[in-house]
Design goal:
Layout (H helix, E strand, L loop, with lengths): L2 H46 L23 H13 L36 H12 L4 H129 L3 H24 L3 H14 L3 H14 L4 H12 L10 H16 L2 H16 L20 H24 L6 H11 L6 H17 L1 H18 L1 H7 L1
Helix pairs in contact: 1-2, 1-4, 3-4, 4-14, 5-6, 5-7, 5-8, 5-9, 5-10, 7-11, 11-12, 11-13, 11-14, 14-15
GO biological process, one term: cytokinesis by cell plate formation
InterPro entries: SCD2-like
Keywords: Coiled coil
């Protein structure tokens, strides 16, 4: 049994005891009322003997409840009622309406007070006294009515007190009923709360058990899970590292490929020198076309374009031939001599292969239009017109030696001799045509040591034709590309050599 249930039952027992005490107090009040009434009769009889000594009243007394003080019995009764009222120990007053356990006390009917008969002994004695004292007649005649009215007043006061007590009892009973009703409601609430608390306690115990199981499982398997997680992270990191390395290798391969392609698109120093000399070739022959009126429709534009790229074509080619004669066309001297070779020509943007392609296109156009043949024919005609009327050569001499070359023809022979020396020096440096390269180089060096003549014109034309037959320029291009690829694949060696 819960403490709340025990408390509620003790409260119900206190209510029953309180009702019993109220009933006992009511019965005691009724008994005291009867004793007061009996005692009042005795007081009336004893007071009749003393009525003669009292002065006669002027008028009859009438009941005045408002001016009369309550009797001592009423005071004692109220004190007893206040002491009899029980106090609830250990239980607070609960204003809960409860069902009454015992029926309430019904108010007792007021006792009917009858007037005393006129033939009572008291009245007989009063009649006898009237014969002795006529002055007190009014007092004697009014004596019995005064005692009955006083008694009636006290009875009325007691009845009123009794009614007040009964009203208080009814009020207390109602409060007790309300307290019992509230106690029952509280019992129901406590019972429901107890059920809910027990359910919550069970749920909490289940949750605690589940948490304990989880903690035990986590304590047992936490290390394995951590190890597995670390292994997964390590594997993921290794996979990422492998992927990064793979991407890095792919990027390096792409960079190498792009570098090779870019290197192929960029001309080295030797190729740039070749481009400059071929531009000088194109600028010279288009200038001669303008001078001799060959292809006049396009000669001016071509001359202007190529002359802008090679403003001093003859001087550049002759200087290159002189270097080839001195043997300074080795690879280690190409970069040093390149500045002197350009003669102030700006080479920015000329290192790409586009420059070589434009030069080759211009040379093919020159061949298709047969510009060189037309220039040679025009110069020959001009020379023939100048030697009209000259004497024939002596007997036994070569007719070709019978005339001297013009200044323009001499410059053309020297230009081609310098070109041939430059080409055969490069062939000798790259190890191409080893059986004839050195002989051809020495031959053209000797040819350039004396002044040009008509025989030199024939020799330079034979030398230019030999270059075309052997494909010397194509061989030189391939050799330069191979050297560039080797430098790209071995950047350390090229750096150390420089």
């Amino acid at each position: 049994m819960s403490p709340m249930n025990r408390h509620n039952r003790s409260g119900s027992a206190g209510v029953v005891n309180f009702r019993r005490a109220q009933n006992t107090a009511a019965r005691e009040a009724a008994q005291r009322l009867a004793r007061v009434m009996a005692h009042q009769h005795a007081d009336d009889e004893s007071s009749e003997d003393d009525d003669t000594a009292l002065p006669p009243p002027i008028e009859l007394s009438t009941p005045r409840r408002a001016n009369r003080s309550p009797s001592p019995a009423i005071g004692r009764y109220l004190a007893e009622q206040s002491s009899v009222r029980p106090t609830s120990t250990g239980r607070p007053v609960m204003m809960v309406k409860s069902t009454p356990l015992i029926p309430p006390i019904k108010p007792t009917p007021k006792p009917v007070v009858t007037s005393l008969p006129s033939d009572s002994p008291i009245v007989g004695r009063r009649d006898k006294r009237m014969s002795f004292d006529l002055g007190n007649l009014s007092m004697r005649e009014s004596g019995p009515p005064r005692s009955s009215s006083t008694l009636q007043d006290e009875i009325d006061v007691l009845q009123e007190e009794n009614e007040n007590i009964l009203q208080k009892l009814r009020h207390v009973e109602e409060r007790c009923e309300e307290a019992e009703a509230r106690a029952k409601q509280l019992e129901k609430q406590v019972a429901s709360l107890g059920d809910g608390a027990s359910l919550e306690a069970r749920l909490l115990s289940q949750k605690e058990a589940a948490l304990q199981r989880r903690e035990a499982t986590a304590a047992n398997g936490s290390k394995d899970e951590e190890i597995a997680a670390l292994q997964m992270e390590a594997k993921s990191a290794r996979d990422k590292a492998a992927s990064v390395v793979e991407h890095l290798l792919e990027a390096e391969s792409e960079i190498k490929t792009l570098r090779k392609v870019a290197q192929k698109m960029i001309l080295n120093q030797e190729e740039m020198e070749e481009v400059i000399l071929k531009r000088c070739w194109l600028a010279r022959y288009w200038k001669l076309c303008v001078q001799h009126g060959i292809h006049s429709d396009i000669a001016d534009a071509k001359n202007e374009y190529w002359s802008s790229l090679a403003p001093l074509p003859l001087e550049v080619v002759l200087s290159t031939g002189q270097k080839a004669r001195a043997g300074s066309l080795s690879e280690k001297h190409v970069h040093e001599d390149n500045d002197n070779l350009t003669f102030g020509v700006d080479l920015d943007g000329e290192e790409n292969i586009e420059s070589m392609l434009l030069v080759e296109k211009g040379l093919r156009e020159l061949v298709l239009l047969k510009v060189e043949e037309a220039v040679l024919l025009s110069m020959a005609k001009h020379r023939c017109s100048n030697i009209k009327g000259t004497m024939l050569s002596p007997e036994g001499s070569n007719p070709t030696e019978a005339f001297e070359l013009s200044q323009e023809e001499c410059e053309d022979v020297q230009f081609k001799q310098a070109w041939l020396k430059y080409i055969w020096r490069r062939v000798n440096n790259h190890g191409l045509e080893e059986d004839i390269a050195d002989d051809r180089l020495q031959f053209w060096i000797e040819q350039s040591s004396h002044s040009p003549n008509s025989q030199d014109v024939i020799e330079v034309e034979r030398g230019m034709l030999e270059l075309k037959k052997l494909g010397i320029e194509s061989q030189l291009w391939e050799a330069c590309r191979r050297a560039a690829n080797e430098d790209l694949s071995n950047p350390g060696s090229s750096t150390s050599s420089t």
